[in-house]
Amino acid sequence: xxKILVVDDDPKIRTSLRRTLAxxxxxxxxxxxxxxALTAMLxxxxxxxxxxxxxxxxxxxxxxxxxxxMSDVPIVMLTARDSTSDQVTGLDAGADDYLxxxxxxxxxxxxxxxxxxxxxxxxxxxxxxxxxxxxDERAHRVTRGERELDLTPREYELLLFFLRHPGEVLAQxxxxxxxxxxxxSKVLDVYVGYLRTKMEAEGxxxxxxxxxxxxxxxxxx
Length: 221
Prior knowledge:
Blueprint: E1 3-7, H1 11-23, E2 27-31, H2 34-43, E3 48-52, H3 60-70, E4 75-79, H4 84-92, E5 97-100, H5 105-118, E6 127-130, E7 133-136, E8 141-144, E9 147-148, H6 153-163, E10 170-171, H7 172-179, H8 187-199, E11 208-211, E12 215-218
Parallel strand pairs: 1-2, 1-3, 3-4, 4-5
Antiparallel strand pairs: 6-7, 7-8, 8-9, 10-12, 11-12
Helix pairs in contact: 2-3, 3-7, 6-8
């Protein structure tokens, strides 16, 4: 059954949603704020996210935008705000649907089923390739030519992010926000160095190119 990530700062609401979803056969993971939600997304990509709009710290709109930079996973936004402008803002941020609190259990389950149906089987590539670099999401395996790369979870997620945007110049802060959940750090440069070392261990051409003053791009040199 589908895996659902529930993001809400109210423990009672999370418990209620978990029980409702588990009873209907879904596997549920919970997060109480934006940072926990981003960590959960990196640990294991869910099939759908239920995302509260009013979160402490990083609000639901920003979390939704960051999710969209990481994945095309369906997002149903949950909120007490019922104005048309709020709904438009949520949908523009990347949400697939918008459900106003309070809602009845049957409506929530129907919305979830509808969103999952709209996501056609195989949507989004599961195997990514640039030159002789191949990442297989199903097998969680990365190869360069005949050589398999042994990547840490963070290195894998960073490389996957690059492979989901081949040929696109990515600003450093955009990558940091998507992978680490914050900006203004030098950690990205360190991890790009780690990836390059592993990807070029046998003299292979460089694929992660530096765009001076901007960030990085994944493309053959």
